Amino acid sequence: MKQYIGQTGRPLKERIKEHIGYIRNKKEEEPSYLHFSQPGHSQHHIQGLGIEQVRSEDPFIIQAREHRIIQLFDSYRNGLNQEP
Question: What distance in Å separates the CA atoms of residue 77 and residue 52, rounded to the nearest whole number?
């Protein structure tokens, strides 16, 4: 199973709907489309899970937390996140 880790200021439900939209609209630049357009995959396989709510408004803290979680889950190598 591949995973994608990201952060959003909006409700998680809305963000998941955007990923589904990338698949439906064939947004080839989006990792979620590239993955779910492969044989044996569909938008119905998408699952979402909130990991952490960061209450800080400091952009450095927010980005550092996201990067740390990506590293913990090794989502650059084994997931859909792309190296910055």
Answer: 21
| Overall pTM > 0.85 | no
pLDDT at 55: 82
Place of tokens 């994608």: 4
Residues in contact with 76: Cβ distance below 8 Å, sequence separation at least 6, in sequence order: 70, 82, 83
Angle at 38 between CA 37 and CA 41, to 5 degrees: 80
Residue recorded with tokens 């609209």: 25
Residue-wise burial string across 27-66, b where 16 or more C-beta atoms lie within 10 A, e elsewhere = beebbbbebbbeeeeeeeebeeeeeeeeeeeeeeeeeeeb
Low-confidence ranges of the chain (pLDDT < 50): none
